[in-house]
Q: What sequence folds into this?
């Protein structure tokens, strides 16, 4: 996507400028500008006022320009007839429904990328910030700096299929500290909706997945996630209850049973209340850590598989597979695949995945899905590196969600262009009458 992710110079997507990007002719640049207008037109009815529709298009144009400064001010200066105050109001406090825009976005993603074997990928991304006035900001782990830092944290769902990948939804994480009474003035300054409940990151992820399922337009067969979500039994339990197949990376300290243990309720001894809690029956084999399980497997249990084709050549790793019983609240849970993956070389690194896929799932399919989480990282790199995903300066709750919504629309616009270049099925809709 690198070629497409280098949009036009200032003005090239709004009709101004005299030098085409990507070594394209002026006619091709003009056609791209028209295609963006047509793409934006599919969302026009979701903006309540004429001015909102106008500034939405201007903002998309600005995000697609090669200017490094993708703040509201930078965009306003880069696009034709830009206005800093009007753009700030449109992003920060504009009364337009970003949720409705994302529902339409999901329909277009399904049209261009949708496949039955597609995957929803859950991941987090952080945004370093100075000060303490931005919605949800606090000192917490920041992936962008690799340490505990002052930042905002977002939870995202991406969609990936054999056709391509793009971001589908987003939520801003509001830390527990923001629910203290002394933090209430900050809520007002950041325009956080009253009654917003505390949600953990896995809970936010589940809400987005639940919405995808309820909308019923984006086809998928898998949910993929890293340890931040895979180590949360409640998150996995919700997927299991909804009969959604997952492949979740988990910590190497995760415990499983190799054989389902018997459970019982201890007999009442006649004193106090009768026991009601189920426990592991005496004499049952204990659960085992998955890294200890990996160490006990014979060499014959491991096979080398091709994970995916990387930029520097094929990526291979050794895999072993064990059927086991997951631990849920110290009791036996569902049967799962334990997929053990270790890198090749003298100092192999072990990664462990749990999956509720059926017992007859081909192992090559589990291997393939283990290499399918990278698209979400690529989405972040493309959106942050080329589309101003992390360049916003708004501090408000609506501003964060509005900005990220339009970034996702801009990213999908480029994905559609790339698909068309490759002869994919995505196509530009006819202009509305």
A:
């Amino acid at each position: 996507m690198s070629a497409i992710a280098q949009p036009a110079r200032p003005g090239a997507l709004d009709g101004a400028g005299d030098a085409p990007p990507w070594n394209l002719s002026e006619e091709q640049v003009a056609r791209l500008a028209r295609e963006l207008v047509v793409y934006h037109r599919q969302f026009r009815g979701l903006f309540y006022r004429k001015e909102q529709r106008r500034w939405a298009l201007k903002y998309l144009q600005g995000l697609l320009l090669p200017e490094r400064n993708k703040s509201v001010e930078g965009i306003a200066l880069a696009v034709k007839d830009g206005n800093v105050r009007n753009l700030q109001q449109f992003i920060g406090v504009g009364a337009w429904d970003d949720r409705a825009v994302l529902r339409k976005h999901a329909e277009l993603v399904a049209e261009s990328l949708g496949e039955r074997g597609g995957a929803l990928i859950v991941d987090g991304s952080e945004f370093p910030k100075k000060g303490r006035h931005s919605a949800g900001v606090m000192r917490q782990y920041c992936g962008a700096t690799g340490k505990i830092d002052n930042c905002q944290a977002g939870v995202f769902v991406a969609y990936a299929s054999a056709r391509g990948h793009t971001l589908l939804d987003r939520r801003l994480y509001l830390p527990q500290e923001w629910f203290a009474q002394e933090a209430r003035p900050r809520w007002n300054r950041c325009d956080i909706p009253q009654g917003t409940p505390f949600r953990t990151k896995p809970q936010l992820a589940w809400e987005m997945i639940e919405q995808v399922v309820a909308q019923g337009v984006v086809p998928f067969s898998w949910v993929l996630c890293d340890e931040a979500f895979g180590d949360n039994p409640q998150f996995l339990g919700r997927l299991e209850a909804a009969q959604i197949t997952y492949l979740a990376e988990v910590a190497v300290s995760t415990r499983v049973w190799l054989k389902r243990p018997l459970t019982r309720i201890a007999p009442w001894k006649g004193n106090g209340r009768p026991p009601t809690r189920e426990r592991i029956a005496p004499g049952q084999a204990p659960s085992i850590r998955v890294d200890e399980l990996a160490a006990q497997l014979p060499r014959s249990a491991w096979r080398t598989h091709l994970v995916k084709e990387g930029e520097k050549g094929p990526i291979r790793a050794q895999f072993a597979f064990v059927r086991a019983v997951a631990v849920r609240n110290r009791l036996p849970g569902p049967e799962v695949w334990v997929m053990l993956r270790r890198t090749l070389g003298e100092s192999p690194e072990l990664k462990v995945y749990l999956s509720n896929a059926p017992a007859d799932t081909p192992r090559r399919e589990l291997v393939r899905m283990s290499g399918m989480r990278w698209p979400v990282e690529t989405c972040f790199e493309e959106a942050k590196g080329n589309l101003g995903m992390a360049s916003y300066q708004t501090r408000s709750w609506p501003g964060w969600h509005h900005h990220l919504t339009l970034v996702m629309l801009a990213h999908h616009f480029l994905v559609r262009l790339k698909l068309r270049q490759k002869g994919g099925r995505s196509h530009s809709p006819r202009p509305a009458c």
Q: What stands out?
A: The CA atoms of residues 219 and 228 lie 24 Å apart. Residues 1-12, 15-23, 426-433 have pLDDT under 50 and may be disordered. The first helix runs from residue 26 to 41.
